[in-house]
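Page 47, continued from p. 46.
Same chain as before, 82 aa.
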Amino acid sequence: MDGLSIIKAASAIGAGLAMIGGIGPGLGQGYAAGKASEAVGRQPEAQGDIIKTMLIGQAVGETCGIYSLIVALILIFANPFI
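Result:
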């Protein structure tokens, strides 16, 4: 094994580990959507405000998942260590 193959293997493992960062936003967004559905069920007249607040919160929460995806793609396709 040469150094290049070790770097490629470590980058693939690192990319897989980086994608674990997608679990948190997925769980959080599901929880937020469930709570928003409950809130709309309790107060249907406030549906517009509830949905707007939920979507803004989910957009902010998704940035963590997007950053982990970008790190994984960089490690796989544009590896700075090679």
